[in-house]
Amino acid sequence: MSASSAEALEVLKGPSRMFQGFDEFEVEVERGVKIFGRRGGNGPPLLLLHGFPQNHLIWHRVAEQLAKTFTVVAIDLRGYGLSTKLELQKQSNASYSKRALAQDSVGVMKHHGFDDFYLCAHDRGARVAHRICVDYPARVRKVIMLDTAPTLAMYEKTDFTFAKAYYHWFFLIQPHPYPETLISSNPEAFMEYNMGGRHHGGKSVFDEDAYKAYVQMMKDPAGVNAMCEEYRASANIDLDHHRQDKEDEREIRCPLMVLWGKHGIIEKCYDAKKEWQDVSSSTVVGQSLDCGHYIPEEQPEILLEKIHSFFKE
């Protein structure tokens, strides 16, 4: 490994002050696919899934507190962070479907000896969580979705306000290599606009080292391609899966809480509780929080309170 590669690796792992008491792991969930993550604490198992354009570091402000009550497992989704990025010529759209990422997540938990678990997921991770709940209903005890609505509903109800704010949903799904080329030409500028521009406080809400790790992912062409492929999957094969769920009446069965930022696009464009209720057989609870999109980093204390109260055994 070159010096520059080693430095990039350390940036992606974050500083040592984060996730103290946690062990790093890498689990091979299928041939050629390894998932990186951290595990810490004791108690009921809790899986944490991040969103775009981030990695497991989004949980750094809550993970150590959660580990006092739960066995916390925080992973980098396939294609993100330090997990496997499949080579372009060897992947298909299905390789980054939420069904594939859900299988990865369940595989990691099984590796750690957990047949069922609590689940808290943000943004793209919540789309993976949705698929876990439907494809593996016996695995999830309860789930919390952060600042999102179901994928099918968001695409089918797209309006001007949503399209303007979430332009990247339509930019990233364009054919390879168009979005990859533009992002890689200036990854810092893309991140400055995409993350800093989606919060009323700008990028100051993010820990400097965590933000550095998010930018580092965008400097890796394989990572950029993987993230684009994950979005491309959402716009076709994932929609096919959700439409089939509706036809087969397959819904989320476990208790579900949804939390969203009142300064974000979910508040402006969707009735989050209703949208999740439409795909759930159990009663959905939830509320908006006084923040933007990045709840784990903007409102960690409130999120901790919600997790402990909702997942109380």
What does this protein structure show overall?
It holds the Pfam family Abhydrolase_1. One of its GO terms (molecular function) is hydrolase activity. InterPro entries: AB_hydrolase_1, AB_hydrolase_fold, Epox_hydrolase-like. With 313 residues, the chain is an alpha/beta fold. It has one domain (3-310): 3-Layer(aba) Sandwich (Rossmann fold), CATH 3.40.50. The protein contains 16 helices and eight strands. It has an eight-stranded mixed β-sheet with strand order 1-2-4-3-5-6-7-8, sandwiched between helices. Strand 3 (45-49), helix 2 (63-66) and strand 4 form a beta-alpha-beta unit. The protein is globular. It starts with a helix and ends with a helix.
What does this entry show, briefly?
The chain is α/β, with parallel strands linked by helices. 44% of the residues lie in helices and 16% in strands. The mean pLDDT is 94.
